[in-house]
Write a structure and sequence with these properties.
Blueprint: H1 10-19, H2 26-35, H3 52-65, H4 70-82
Amino acid sequence: MAVKTITVTVEAYQALSRAKQAHESFSDTVRRLAERSVPLTDFAGAWADVPERQLDEIEQFLEKSGQLGWNRLKRRTHRKRST
C-alpha cells in the first residue's frame, strides 16, 4: 500500500491522538474523522448563551479580518473573556 507523510503541529497530533480509538491506526482515525458529516441543524442554538454585545464584537472582528481560521477566532474570543 502506498503511503504519504504529512506534517502536523503538536496540537493537531494531540487532538488526533485523543480522537484515536484503541483498535484504530492513525490512518483509520483520519479517514473516520474526514468521512463523517454533521448536519447543520446540530449547530442550531450553539451561540444562544453568548451575550448580544459579544456577538456584535465577533461580527465586527470577522468583517474586518476577511478570512479567519477557527483557531484564530477562538484565540481572539478567549482573550476577550480573560481580560
